[in-house]
Amino acid sequence: MFGSGQWLFLDIDACFAQVEQVARPALRGRPVGVVPVVIDTTCCIAVSYEAKRLGVKTGCSVREARRLCPDITLVQSRPELYIRTHRRILGAVDTCLPVTRVCSIDEMACRLGANEKTADDALGLAQRVKDAVRDRTGLTCLVGVASNDVLAKVASEMEKPDGLVLIRREDLPERLFTLELDDFPGIGPQMLKRLHAHGVFDVKHLCALSQADLAAIWRSIEGQRWWRRLRGFDVPPIPTRTRSVGHQRILAPDLRNTRSVHAMLVHLICKASARARSKGYAARRLSVGVRCLDHPGWWATTPVPPTQSTHALVRAFESLWVDAEIKRPIRVDTTLHELLAVGVAEEPLFPGARHERDLWRAVDRINSRHGKHTIYLGALHGTFDAVPVRIPFSSIPDLDLPA
Q: Which domain CATH number covers 332?
């Protein structure tokens, strides 16, 4: 019996590269690499299947990509296009069934309804989802169906490209035995080392262990949750809260100087503070950093009174910047740490701090209504094109927030 206990997981094939191929017909059928900046010192953030077949992988350096595939076409990423496409994908899936959880810009999970009572019903629905996405966006996608969201994601990776795989609960755990341990989401290099240290080298052995064995390996109750997942039980996720908000940027060659680095860091602090306010958080620590080519980087951090004020965070940054020594910068980072929900954070003690908080809330309201750069710090004038939107792995940027 299928129904509400089943999950469908959708993953867009080689997402950014495929979006570029759809948008630019001349790229279809050709090896494509998407890069943050078209320079040799960066890496591919996405590659097409044509490039993957020649050994180019996501994260591959541009130099290595060109060595493996001399004919590769490198295109600069267009995050705003990918975000708009993401919204169209959501709309396409929603014509077939509600999206339960957006996992990233190219992944989403959907709980099946009571109408999908058999495997054939579930497969039929999954095919309708694939057709809807293709019709509305021109994109192919991977779809997996299983009795929990983790196994549905595993199923979606079993056939590439354009695959559709169903894992039946009655076929567990034997259906998983052909997989590698790190084919499971959440089993990365460190967990793989831990499993190997306990003598676990394949999925068959992993599935043979008891709940107590897995709890000992994971060193937490999460091991017991994995025991249940591997047997097809639907295991609800543990609620999490946002602990930090941050941004990083690779610097284009013409921005690799001290003045541009300073401007870029101020811009990223403004962006991070706007995101924190939109999520209802105040920051208690600011960290900034610059990675340099062939030279030591510069990293600094400072506590701040719980604040939502961009002014307060920029002032904190300026106090750190006094000691900065930078040579050949290539990347900048900024992070707001130790976030507190506004209802938990204490009211600012001094009137000036309260006025700054209210000022930036008013700025957010105006920019939301009239456009994201209607009001901004004078220090940012002329810098917006230098700080394009980027897409982190775990969230989708809001195009209405400052870029």
A: 3.30.1490.100
Mean pLDDT of the chain, nearest integer: 87
Q: How far apart are CA 15 and CA 221, in angstroms?
A: 34
Predicted confidence (pLDDT) at residue 71 exceeds the cutoff of 90: yes
Q: What is the pLDDT of residues 79-105, one digit of tens each?
A: 889 999 999 999 999 999 999 999 988
Q: Are 195 and 91 in a shared domain?
A: yes
> Within this chain, do residues 57 and 89 fall inside the same structural domain, yes or no?
no
Query: Token match 């009174």: residue?
Result: 305
Q: How far apart are CA 212 and CA 207, in angstroms?
A: 12
**Tokens 């019903």 belong to residue:** 121
Rounded to an integer, what distance in angstroms lies between the CA atom of residue 330 and that of residue 327?
9
Q: pLDDT tens digits, residue range 331-376?
A: 999 999 988 887 655 566 556 666 776 777 777 777 777 766 667 6
The Cα–Cα gap between 88 and 159 comes to 24
Residue 384 DSSP symbol: G
- Residue 5: what pLDDT? 60
Angle at 68 between CA 65 and CA 70, to 5 degrees: 80
Q: pTM for the full model?
A: 0.73
CA distance 323 to 309: 23
User: Which residue shows structure tokens 């509400």?
Assistant: 4
Q: Which residues pair with 301 in a beta bridge?
A: 287
* pLDDT for position 89: 96
Q: Quick one: tokens of 245?
A: 């908000």
Q: Is the Cβ–Cβ distance between 97 and 112 less than 8 Å?
A: yes
Q: Note whether 53 and 151 are same-domain residues.
A: no
Separation between Cα atoms, residue 30 and residue 46, nearest integer Å: 14
Token pair in block for residue 205: 């052995």
Q: Do the beta carbons of residue 48 and residue 17 sit within 8 Å?
A: yes
HSE-up of 271 (CA within 13 Å, CB side)?
26
The β-bridge partners of 249 are 332
| Average pLDDT of the residues in 192-221 | 96
CA distances from 238 to 174, 185, 281, 363, 365 (A): 27, 15, 21, 35, 33
Residue type, 323: D
**SS3 state of residue 46:** strand
pLDDT band for 395, please (50, 70, 90 cuts): low
Same domain, residue pair 106 and 217: yes
- 227: pLDDT strictly greater than 90: yes
